[in-house]
Amino acid sequence: MKKKFFTLLAAVVFSFFPLSLFSQEVDEDSFDSMFDEVEDVVVEEAKAAPVPENSQKQISFSGSLDTELGAGIKSEPGDPISPAAYFSFENYFYMTARASDVFSLKATLFTSLPTFELTLHEIYFNYLLFDKIYIQAGKHSITWGNLQLIENNILADSPNTVSISVSVPLWKFNLAGIIFYSQDWGGALYPNWNNISAAASFEGAFGPFQFNIFGRRWANLDADAQLPVLGLETKLSIKGYDLYNQLVFNSHLALNVSETYLDKITCTSGFMKDWEDPRIGFIIEYRYIYYDKVINPTAVDNHYLYLKAGISRLFNNTSKFAIEFMHDFPTCTGLVIPGYIYSALPHADLKVGLPFYYGSGYWKVIPIATLAFEWSY
Q1: If 0-12 CB within 10 Å is exposed, 13-18 middle and 19+ buried, where does residue 214 land?
Q2: Is 0.85 surpassed by the pTM of this model?
Q3: Distance CA 273, CA 243 (A)
Q4: Please, what's the b/e burial string for 9-41 (b: 16 or more CB within 10 A of its CB; e: otherwise)?
Q5: Residue 377: how many CB atoms within 10 A of its CB?
Q6: How far out from the chain centre does Cα 41 lie?
Q7: Residue 57 CB partners (closer than 8 Å, separation 6+)
Q8: Three-state DSSP string of the chain
Q9: What mean pLDDT do residues 87-110 have?
Q10: Of 74, 83, 99, 115, which has the maximum CB count within 10 A?
Q11: Are 215 and 232 in contact (CB under 8 A)?
């Protein structure tokens, strides 16, 4: 069940500059989608897909193309100024086959360049049982959570697994459960306790207040497994102002209470707001990660701040200005990206940015311009 409660700067939708051309102390990949359309996702794809306008249309095809050409200049202390070029090409081709209003099949084919990739990104079916229970099974991406800037989706590995999910609306609530399986988790051909991961969510809404209680157990043989997770999300929306929080506990659970312990606590808070004419909006999120010093005596607590803001619909709706800021407090490193988009070109946007990376005795500036093409067909 994909719920959209708030959109920030809908006109400023773009994947920003190809910063992954360069390497630096700050993670640049986390800024590649600067000023994307913001969505609050509580449970994505937990329900069957909506019935199309033309219910007689049994099979439909669509797609989306996102490609960029760019050039930039890299400048940092001790190194000569060096130019760089950039090219990316990503295409998603979607197919939907509908047997009836209660049963459908979906598939997505993904292609990328210059590193060639052609993969079956998603293939799954939706089924509505007794007009009340939503069943979904196959290979697909699932997202839980309201966070917009800081990633903490406990289902992030779902695209690499086979999953079965069941979602049941209960008055003002929704109960969802998911089972994941992968042959990479131990190499077994069939699911068993060691290569099965399970997650559950219970969410509800009362007027402007929403909550979501969720948890997950990872497969024993999953090389990237975490300790079991239990989390709580809340969100309050009043007059266009959204305040949301997420609290996640990673704990080792055992039948013997003496063997149960807390590993870490991750707390994230966010606030966002937008205004109309001109379109102005911002999102700010702060995260603090606490580690149990008994279990992790050498661990250092971490906390950092993210901010995105922008203004659009300027100069006859042809221009947009935006800025992104990130600061990591323990390492005193961060990134500032002011940017401008000219969107009056047919089928293309001209993007210009000035990413500035900083740290203790360190800085880097990467002026960059790209011509971005986006097409939905």
Answers
A1: buried
A2: no
A3: 9
A4: bebbbbbbbbbeebebbbebeebeebbbebbbb
A5: 10
A6: 9
A7: 98
A8: CCCCCCCCCCCCCCCCCCHHHCCCCCCCHHHCCCCCCCCCEEECCCCCCCCCCCCCCCEEEEEEEEEEEEEEEEEECCEEEEEEEEEEEEEEEEEEEEEECCEEEEEEEEEEECCCEEEEEEEEEEEEECCCEEEEEEECCCCEECCCCCCCCCCCCHHHCEEEEEEEEECCEEEEEEEEECCCCCCCCCCCHHHEEEEEEEEEEECCEEEEEEEEECCCCCCCCCCCEEEEEEEEEECCEEEEEEEEEEEECCCCHHHCEEEEEEEEEEEEEEECCCEEEEEEEEEEEEECCCCCCCCCCEEEEEEEEEEEEECCCCEEEEEEEEEECCCCEEEEEEEEEECCCCCCEEEEECCEEEECCEEEECCEEEEEEEEEC
A9: 95
A10: 74
A11: no
Show the tokens assigned to 164. 């079965």
Q: Are 137 and 161 in contact (CB under 8 A)?
A: no
- Higher-pLDDT residue of 14 and 273 is 273
Is the backbone peptide bond immediately before 297 cis, with ω within 30 degrees of 0?
no
Region of poorest pLDDT, from 98-107, 122-131, 150-159, 325-334: 150-159
Contacts of 6 (CB under 8 A, 6+ apart): 38, 39, 40, 237, 242, 272, 274
* Residue bearing tokens 């190499």: 187
> Are the C-beta atoms of residues 262 and 253 closer than 8 Å to each other?
no
